[in-house]
Amino acid sequence: MSNWLKTYRLILWLILAIFVLYLVYLALVPSGQVVYRYDFSKPSQFIGPLTPGDRVREPAGAEQEIIGNPIYFSLSTPRPFDRATLTIKYRNPHALNNLEAGVLVDKKLWRYQLAPLANKLIDQAIASGAWGLVESGSTILLQRSENYNSVAEFLAKLPAKNEVALYNYNLSPKYQLANYQATSTLWSWPYPLKADYQFYTYLNNEKLAVDFSFTDLNDNSDPDPIELLVYDQANQLVATESLADDGVSARITHGRSLNLNHKLPNGLYKVEVKANSDIITDTFSTSLSKISFINRLWLAPRNQALELSASGAQLTLQTINPASLGAVYLNQELIDLNQSYRQLSSVSDCGSACRIKLAKGDIIISMDGVFALDAKQLIDPRWLNLGARKAIPASVKYILANYSPPETEGSEQVATIDLDLTQAYREKGKYSFLISAPSLSAEDAVDDSLIISDISLELSGADWRSLLSKVFAR
């Protein structure tokens, strides 16, 4: 064999080795730092297209128009990471009120860890100059009259609850109900509920005792376990109960029961019923006089009228069942639920107490607020949240938020959020992300949209030393 042929083969092997090493380098990301970007001029190798297709228009001119809510995109990564800095460059020509984004953390219950991109009410308040601004790290305090010199001073001496609005901030001073007395009168929830839900309750020298009855539809072959999780006011898990899958498939299982019966200190508690859409809560029985469901209920199929009390902002309705279409009333406001798979919202906010009347079940109702069987059962320890509001209520004198307003670059805005990926759901090398603009609807007759021109994700995680230590530690 001639020397030139040997040299030629050696060069080929070197090229192959370099290519393999490069692929290994990409797979390991040895520095633990990497940036992926999608600018809409061409498909990205790592960031997937925006979906579903009926909520977006085709990319044009290196940008894409979003016309419905929410929209999703995936991120393919060669290995897991710990954190993600998500930056989105966009135009908001129709002044949409509230924009958020996040990453999927629970596929079973379809839950996303969300963070704010932009809030029009806060941005306008800052720009107006009518509100004093105090900053402490990522926390801002806006005040109509400058009565506080720092966020710490504000937290040390909180004003009246109706004077404060929050955004992306958890304010949980000890909640107490004045003149609340326990009762021994047993009552039952009358409307079947589908899938998961959460409710607040309050104890005063009484047990947290609730008896649940479930039906397993077994519409699919996946396991259908049920969990009851109890949290105290500090959001610490204090009690759990669970019910394993019934082991049955292809037929309905009735009469499965699970009970809470715990002696706990007096005060506020949150109960989470964790179940998938195969599970129906037929009813539950309790003597607790305060039961208020949080944010969302899926009212299971029922061919009779339902009536609920509520407190909060922006009631939203949706059904996937054509038989459930019809009139829904929020006090005197008619919401015509006339199309399945379409999300409809009330024009007015519910306020401190209102009545919701539905002709049938199998409807998902949601709002930034609480639902109860009766107004006397309503309880909501949370402070007013600006996320779903169309305007700042006149009573609000202070706004407390973990929020950084987007920056302006020419005609565009740039928003950046930080996300924890250690608890994120990752399947087949992909994370799932969401962008939410709640006021957008692909089905309504309103010509509004959000226009995105760039998405970038800066990921960080263990470097090659940490990766090797994990390998050799096994």
Provide a descriptive summary of the structure in words.
This protein is mostly beta strands and 474 residues long. Among the domains are: 3-29; 33-120 and 420-465, Jelly Rolls (Sandwich), CATH 2.60.120; 303-375. Helix content is 11%, strand content 43%. It has four helices and 32 strands. The chain has helices spanning 3-28, 120-128, 151-156, 464-473; strands spanning 33-38, 64-66, 71-76, 83-91, 98-106, 111-119, 132-136, 139-143, 164-167, 187-188, 193-194, 197-203, 208-216, 226-232, 237-243, 253-262, 267-274, 279-286, 292-299, 306-318, 326-330, 333-337, 344-345, 351-358, 363-372, 384-385, 398-402, 407-409, 412-420, 426-427, 430-436, 450-460. Strands 12, 14, 15, 17, 19, 20, 21, 22, 23, 24 and 25 form an eleven-stranded antiparallel sheet that branches. A hairpin with a 4-residue loop joins strand 14 and strand 15. The mean pLDDT is 88.
Quick summary of this structure?
With 474 residues, this protein is mainly β. The protein has helices spanning 3-28, 120-128, 151-156, 464-473; strands at 33-38, 64-66, 71-76, 83-91, 98-106, 111-119, 132-136, 139-143, 164-167, 187-188, 193-194, 197-203, 208-216, 226-232, 237-243, 253-262, 267-274, 279-286, 292-299, 306-318, 326-330, 333-337, 344-345, 351-358, 363-372, 384-385, 398-402, 407-409, 412-420, 426-427, 430-436, 450-460. It is 11% helix and 43% strand.
